[in-house]
Write a structure and sequence with these properties.
Elements: H1 2-26, H2 31-49, H3 51-54, H4 64-85, H5 90-97, H6 100-111, H7 118-134, H8 143-164, H9 171-193, H10 201-227, H11 230-233, H12 239-252, H13 258-293
């Protein structure tokens, strides 16, 4: 239960980050500048809070090149998603991002050498059908925003694959390298996109808060996955769409229409169906292993 509550709290914080980014982009702040503040504050907080406790061990990695690849995909996803939120409502943008697990399932056989499975492909087809409903001809969504949304989901799927490839490292180490790469890369590009926006004091505070909510949101996610298995937490991830729809209504006065809501529901159902099938298959494999490992006679006494 603690893991589930931490996971949900992290999702709400990350949705708050998305809402803040959308507000700032709509106020005229360049997407790259919002991203720069998000990463600089994030890495500043990690350096102040985590580095003194971990010391040099925080930098220990089995593959620096893979960490850099993950960092590249992380910053690409951030910049693309903030661009999406500048063009489409929060709930729809978040829903499109949930195509990422389905793209991951489609790419895994080639990039992760995982076997093809029928239920995964059925989930991909159902999720894509839901996406077609969301971006239907005659709908109200910005076409470029939808295209950027699909690119964001694909980039996020590649980011998840990159994350799996550094699973041997400490999660805090991985989180630190991702923030550090984003902060350094955007700082180097700063002279080409920086311009001082005319913002009210509360908007400057909101800009700085993007790093705080990003840092705390990822921190809670790490804490959740330490306390509960991924298969248990996966279905609750779809509550982020509820968080996004709630914040979209409260902050922007935007709610999906019925047809769009049906498409979002189909995307969620596709992901939940695959998660349920994967969990059922995992339980079946564990049961078979337990049968094979069961002793056939008396074993040694253990004190």
């Amino acid at each position: 239960m603690a893991g589930i509550l931490l996971h949900i709290a992290g999702l709400w914080l990350l949705s708050s980050l998305d809402a803040s980014g959308k507000l700032l982009v709509m106020a005229g702040v360049p997407v790259l500048m919002v991203s720069w503040f998000r990463y600089v504050v994030h890495i500043g907080l990690m350096t102040a809070v985590v580095l003194p406790r971990r010391g040099r061990a925080l930098f220990a990695t089995q593959s620096l090149s893979r960490q850099l690849q993950r960092g590249l995909m992380m910053i690409t996803t951030t910049v693309l998603f903030f661009s999406v939120l500048g063009r489409v409502p929060l709930a729809e943008g978040t829903a499109m991002n949930f195509m990422a697990p389905l793209f991951l399932m489609a790419l895994a056989p080639w990039l992760l050498q995982e076997p093809h499975r029928l239920h995964r492909w059925l989930g991909v087809v159902a999720g894509f059908a839901g996406m077609l409903i969301v971006m239907r001809p005659g709908g109200q969504l910005d076409r470029l925003g939808v295209i950027l949304g699909l690119l964001t989901a694909l980039a996020f799927a590649l980011f998840q694959i990159a994350t799996r490839r550094v699973a041997h490292d400490d999660p805090l180490t991985t989180n630190y390298y991702g923030g550090l790469f984003g902060a350094l890369a955007l700082t180097l590009a700063l002279p080409w996109f920086w311009r001082t926006p005319e913002l009210a004091p509360w908007q400057w505070l909101l800009l700085a808060s993007t790093g705080v909510t990003g840092f705390l949101g990822h921190w809670l996610q790490i804490a959740a996955f330490k306390r509960a298995p991924a298969t248990l937490l996966a279905p609750f991830s779809y509550l982020q769409i509820v968080a996004a729809a709630t914040l979209g209504w409260l902050v922007f006065g935007q709610l999906p229409d019925r047809v769009t809501a049906a498409g979002i529901a189909l995307i969620c159902a596709a992901g939940l169906g695959v998660a349920w099938a994967e969990a059922r298959r995992a339980r079946s494999l564990r049961a078979n292993l337990d049968k094979v490992a069961a002793p056939t006679g008396p074993g040694p006494a253990v004190s």
